[in-house]
């Protein structure tokens, strides 16, 4: 065992980030619960940063930038009215996303250190 965790391609992770951000925006409109949205965006950014730990801020931006677009789609599909509070919440979602992204990158680093191959003592 080499101790190296295989990393998926950046393109597939960016596509996943767009899908997860859109899903978070949709849930934010349908459920209207700010804490659920914050937990979702934190968990999704953490997962993406765990997959690709280099520059974790990009996953926070990728997930949280798509949330307003997901909300617009949800408003079009459900017919609910668009309000300024929901848009503000979506923009502020970048804060918990940053915490999750850097936490995911740190977790990946810890796992990498714990499972790296042992060097025999001479």
List the helices and strands and how they pair.
Elements: H1 10-31, H2 34-51, H3 57-78, H4 84-92, H5 94-114
Our Rg estimate from Cα atoms comes to: 17 Å
Shape, per Cα inertia axes: elongated
Task: State the end-to-end distance.
Answer: 21 Å
- The total of beta strands comes to 0
Helix content: over 70%
Our estimate of the beta-strand percent is: under 5%
> Count of helices?
5
- What pattern of helices and strands is seen along the backbone? HHHHH
Give the mean pLDDT.
86
Spans of at least 5 consecutive residues with low confidence: none
The largest sheet is: none
Structural class: mainly alpha
Give an account of the 3D structure.
The protein is mainly alpha-helical. Helices cover 75% and strands 0% of the residues. It contains 5 helices and no strands. It is elongated, with a radius of gyration of 17 Å. It starts with 9 loop residues before the first helix and ends in an 8-residue tail after the last helix. 34% of the residues are buried. The model has no long low-confidence stretch (mean pLDDT 86).
Characteristic terms for this protein:
elongated, 5 helices, 122 residues, mainly alpha
Write a concise synopsis of the structure shown.
This protein is mostly helical. The protein contains five helices and no strands.
């Amino acid at each position: 065992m080499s101790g190296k965790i295989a990393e998926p391609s950046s393109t597939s992770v960016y596509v996943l980030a767009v899908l997860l951000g859109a899903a978070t925006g949709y849930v934010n409109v349908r459920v209207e619960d700010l804490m659920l949205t914050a937990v979702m965006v934190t968990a999704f950014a953490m997962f993406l940063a765990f997959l690709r730990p280099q520059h974790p801020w990009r996953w926070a931006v990728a997930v949280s930038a798509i949330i307003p677009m997901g909300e617009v789609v949800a408003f079009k599909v459900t017919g609910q009215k668009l309000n300024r509070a929901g848009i503000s919440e979506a923009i502020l979602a970048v804060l918990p996303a940053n915490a999750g992204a850097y936490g995911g990158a740190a977790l990946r680093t810890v796992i990498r250190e714990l499972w790296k191959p042992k060097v025999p003592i001479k």
